[in-house]
Description:
By secondary structure, the protein is mainly beta. The chain has helices at 177-180, 190-193, 203-208, 392-395, 405-408; strands at 2-5, 7-8, 19-26, 29-37, 61-68, 73-79, 85-91, 96-99, 104-109, 113-121, 131-138, 145-148, 172-173, 213-218, 220-221, 232-238, 242-250, 274-281, 286-292, 298-304, 309-312, 317-321, 328-336, 346-353, 360-363, 387-388. The chain folds into two domains: 2-180, Immunoglobulin-like (Sandwich); 196-408, Immunoglobulin-like (Sandwich), CATH 2.60.40.
Amino acid sequence: MEFRIEHQWNSAPVAHEPVTIWLKSVDGGLRMDVSAPFFNDPPAPPGAAGQPLSGLWDYEVVEAFFLNSNTEQYLEVEVCPHGQHLVLLLSQRRNIWKESLPLSLQVSRTDTTWNGCALLPWDYFPPSVDKFNAYAIHGSELERTYEALYPVPQHAVQEGHQPDFHRLEYFRPFSFSAVMGEKWKQPESSLWKMSQVSSVISEKEVEKHPATQLVYKITTTWDSKPVLHEPVTITFKSHEEGLLMEVHALFFDDPPKPPGEPGEPFDGLWDFEVVESFFLNSRTTQYLEVELCPHGQHLVLLLSGVGNAFKKELELKFEADTTLNWGKWHGTALIPWHYFPPDVDMMNSYAIHGSGIGRVYEALYPIPQEDISEGQSANFHRLEYFKAFNLKSIMGEDWEKPSSNLWESAP
């Protein structure tokens, strides 16, 4: 299969010889060949050739995405003319759950062109890949150029829109049978089968292989712009008494610590540096809000109706540490089962840091940029943007959440 990237991300034509990508069958996987102009702009990344490099998308790069459109599971492969590479497995848009996987990549180049050959193991591909897109990036600052095999149509590009390679709705149909033959079946992947990300596991797979944890990364601000730092990682784990919530995040120490005691509830914690998770029953609009601060304070609220808290400052087993890993913080909270409303089916998570005009609001599931109107501000109670969540993905299909007398008094 041959693909030529002849357009920029917004459907404008490219002004140079197009990047060409070939996909070929090989034993154990798919071979991806790249032939492209060599701009040498930006200069070579700091990583060693032949090794993974996080953030490779900030350099000169060619990327290919392989998508299961039903589950929004996808493989992202990035190759650089200087020899670095980056392989990401994602479950739902921008939600990376495995990264920097090893890759066999060979690169050759002249002063004006480069060629790459990467071998993609079948284990890296999500089940039932049915859509595809490819991209190329080069240039620095105002000359930065973003190119797409299947771009955003010009009529859909609005003023102020920025390139976004995770617009899965613009991917197009793709079938491995065009390379491998009609009778070929995609091998089962141990990586995706045993994945610990909730949406990676189908309902039947959950019954056979219940996950013990769910992992999420907050990679966007509330208004769908990419975060400019290492993403906050939230991990949910099973526990007899409740749900374990672990946070790994950068420690900004901005604003300074709240005046409350570590380990105690603190009303108004959202005005400080905090990571939050919301667990929603979308039918009744009942939801649990849990806020964790790197300085050790916490806030638990039970809400019935949007923004209507009827219980708050509940006790929570929570410990946070900012000294173990300089510049970062780690926290673990045990959320009792009776804090959760009945039939939780949706979730969202957030992170906040900074002061004044430097205040930053980040969201796991943000508001799409096309839904944002002028003057709109961050609002973490936009429940319509929450996404599907099932506690049984952690606890097992036979598990039933214990009843809660707290919610019996909900208005």
